């Protein structure tokens, strides 16, 4: 016999997306909310992240809108020196726990059901007690669209022979004796974190072998700094980005120009990336990564045997004394099973990115639009889905959709004001505060304005050529 519950909004998932959505809904409405999640704590994949994980972007625009996560400090040491603080995984988890307890539950309007599997049709069951629940809801919010696959919870898609030393990145700190060598598998941010951590621990760069199936374009963290001190850098790179796109003669030329203006980075200047997952790193981190010379570019790993690693384009030697570190979980795989759906569909809301690189802001704004606009048509117009990138060329539809959204938002005075005051929006406030008498910055702003429409036109042209 299942227990009956009734609510205005049933939210599935208490990762950053579910949390940021619920937070803004609490602010903007007097709705009652039920949140269901199969993990024991809010925060989604941060519950199972590796011990040395940190945010990739500054803490100041991560989390929920109503509660600050950043300490407001600039790092004085380490590879993030000179840039805004990056919360550690433990800090992110503690933060979401505090948001849940001090704000959501304390409001008396949120009921939270951790350790519960949602099975559809308003039904979920507690994994430990077995108790079953049936919710009569007015709106369903599926905040699981971006559910992340991480090495600690996924099964690698290659064979691993018995006797091979193999572990997910999470287990690296458990290593007790130095192996013959480290083999890092993966070309994304997780692999970057593994390499950087090993180097920081004093592991010789030559003891690291790094298997990269596809090189990635990377974002420079210096361009994602919300503090006033970085305004000029940010607008300058934005202007450079629009100029690069508007002036590009071809897609390859666009990437070259984006790199030349400092918007994009790559590991090896002689290898053209074919992947873009929006991984964000500092120049100091890049310099460290370039110390690793033993990079294997032979496609995907198919099998790890005791004496060799079989890849799609060849094989390399290994040994039972080598440690193989799985960093192969990919965004592509996480999202592959999801079909894009309109964000607002009757009484179902499926939060997805509406601004690239900013899942928290996206979820918060979707809740704001839900609370303040009427028809699904109008809500979906303001919240057009921004596709997540995987291949390098996915940068084109992603940037195009983001620029179109930004333009639509700029036409709505109330929305513009709300965005400027939302702490999850990194830049609008700083840009709005630029002194009109500061001719240097105003000249840069003019470059942004002059190149925005030509950039959109060029992206449309490139996007059309991709569709053929
Ligand atoms: C290493 C790393 C660093 C990152 N750094 C940043 C950063 O600096 N800035 C930034 O903006 N983003 C960053 N991200 C991305 C961001 O944190 C989120 O991963 C992403 O936006 C997805 O969040 P989510 O809430 O959709 O997914 P998740 O965190 O995966 O949460 C989904 C939740 O849904 C629950 N769930 C799914 N299905 C069910 C079900 N049937 N029943 C019950 N519960 C269910 C899961 O248990 C989970 O808690 C980073 C990601 C990684 C992996």
Instruction: Give the rounded overall mean pLDDT.
Output: 94
Sheet/helix structural class = alpha/beta
Low-pLDDT windows of residues: none
Share of helix among residues? Answer: 25-40%
Structurally, how many domains make up the residues?
3
Outline the fold blueprint:
Blueprint: E1 3-12, H1 16-28, E2 33-36, H2 89-104, E3 110-113, E4 116-120, E5 123-126, E6 132-142, E7 159-160, E8 165-168, E9 181-185, H3 189-200, E10 208-211, E11 216-220, H4 231-247, H5 251-260, E12 264-265, E13 275-281, H6 283-289, E14 295-296, E15 301-304, E16 308-311, E17 314-317, E18 322-326, H7 331-336, E19 344-345, E20 348-349, H8 359-372, H9 376-382, H10 395-410, H11 413-421, H12 428-432, H13 439-467
Parallel strand pairs: 1-2, 1-6, 2-3, 6-20, 7-15, 8-18, 9-10, 9-18, 10-14, 11-13
Antiparallel strand pairs: 4-5, 5-6, 11-12, 15-16, 16-17, 19-20
This protein binds flavin-adenine dinucleotide.
Residues 12-18, 36-39, 44-45, 49, 53, 55-57, 62, 117-118, 143-144, 146-148, 150, 358-360 line the site of flavin-adenine dinucleotide.
Question: How would you describe this protein?
Answer:
By secondary structure, this protein is an alpha/beta fold. The chain has helices at about 15-30, 90-105, 190-200, 230-245, 250-260, 285-290, 330-335, 360-370, 375-380, 395-410, 415-420, 430, 440-465, and strands at about 5-10, 35, 110-115, 115-120, 125, 130-140, 160, 165-170, 180-185, 210, 215-220, 265, 275-280, 295, 300-305, 310, 315, 320-325, 345, 350. The strands form four sheets. Strands 1, 2, 3, 4, 5, 6, 19 and 20 form an eight-stranded mixed β-sheet that branches. Helix 1 (about 15-30) packs parallel to helix 8 (about 360-370). It starts with a strand and ends with a helix. The model has no long low-confidence stretch (mean pLDDT about 95). It binds flavin-adenine dinucleotide. Flavin-adenine dinucleotide binds near residues 12, 36 and 37.
